[in-house]
Automatic annotation (TrEMBL):
One term of GO molecular function: methyltransferase activity
InterPro entries membership: Methyltransf_11, SAM-dependent_MTases_sf
Protein name in UniProt: Class I SAM-dependent methyltransferase
Domain Methyltransferase type: 63-151
Organism: Pseudonocardia nematodicida
GO biological process: methylation
The organism's place on the tree of life at top rank: Bacteria
Keyword Cell cycle among record annotations: no
Pfam families, sorted: Methyltransf_11
Keywords recorded for this protein, A-Z: Methyltransferase, Transferase
Length: 255
């Protein structure tokens, strides 16, 4: 499963996931959800997706490529959703389970270990640009959703798949291309919201992320794997800051 993800990306999503769990152990459980939101989903973004996807208490949510489980845990804490994470990275799934108590299954978004028509809501946040077969991933999300089910996406888009300075393993779709793929895989796209137009995460959320990052740097700063993972994160940060890559929240309904 780990071979689905290029080596540098695996460092960011697997090795660092294990390190993050240990950092949160040191700093306190209130750091866990912000530290585990690795797709740049802020509380405002999660609020919007939860509202558009109709997440209410007891609603089952499959967070595909859910990483270390931050968004899933936010949905459980703030909306009473009943989440499961699917992610190919064993370290991410371990962290979702052990740090946040979120059920997490190691699996590929292009061959989901979930029954057809079994979930009312899927999220897939910051994942589409990390997979090569983007139509295949959307088709799988459609397969596991009940008819009329809701999909919440956070998609990073660009004018070309690999703009100069792109992180390893990323292939950015265009926004129009993403909407066309959604239609082709059986979805009716709904609203599109630019991530940049949403309020920043509150200072308390950003401070907790900064404390976890500082703890990781203290503990692993000399490890070349830390430097490689940091470089991946810096690259996407630079592209977003420079406007080459844009984040969008999309809501779609399974036809
Ligand atoms: C930017 S992270 C986002 C994590 C999480 N969704 C969040 O917002 O915090 C991208 C995630 O996509 C996962 N991923 C990569 N290839 C995948 C695939 N083929 N199927 C499902 N997830 C995949 C990675 O392991 C990683 O956890």
């Amino acid at each position: 499963m780990a071979d689905l993800v290029p080596e540098r990306m695996a460092l960011e999503f697997d090795t660092v996931a294990d390190w993050t769990r240990r950092a949160v152990d040191e700093l306190g459980a209130d750091h866990a959800i912000p530290a585990a939101c690795r797709g740049s989903a802020s509380p405002a973004a999660l609020e919007l997706l939860a509202r558009e996807c109709g997440l209410t208490p007891g609603v089952r949510l499959a967070d595909v490529g859910g990483g270390t489980g931050g968004p899933a845990a936010w949905a459980r804490e703030h909306r009473g959703a009943v989440p499961v994470v699917v992610d190919p990275m064993p370290g991410a799934c371990r962290t979702a389970r052990e740090m946040l108590g979120i059920p997490a299954v190691v699996g590929d978004g292009n061959a989901l270990p979930l029954a057809s028509g079994s979930v009312p809501v899927c999220w897939c946040l910051g994942v589409l640009c990390t997979v090569e077969d983007q139509a295949g991933l959307l088709a799988e999300l459609h397969r596991v959703l009940v008819p009329g089910g809701a999909l919440g996406l956070l998609v990073y888009t660009a004018d070309e798949p690999r703009p100069p300075g792109a992180p390893d393993g990323n292939h950015f779709p265009t926004l129009d291309g993403t909407l066309a793929l959604l239609r082709a895989t059986g979805f009716a796209p709904g609203t599109v919201t630019a991530l940049a137009g949403l309020p920043d995460a509150p200072a308390s959320w950003r401070d907790r992320i900064a404390r976890v990052d500082a703890q990781l740097a203290r503990t692993h700063g000399d490890d070349p794997r830390f430097a490689a993972a940091e470089e991946q994160a810096r690259r996407i940060g630079r592209l977003v800051d420079g406007g080459t890559v844009e984040g969008h929240l999309l809501h779609a309904t399974a036809r």
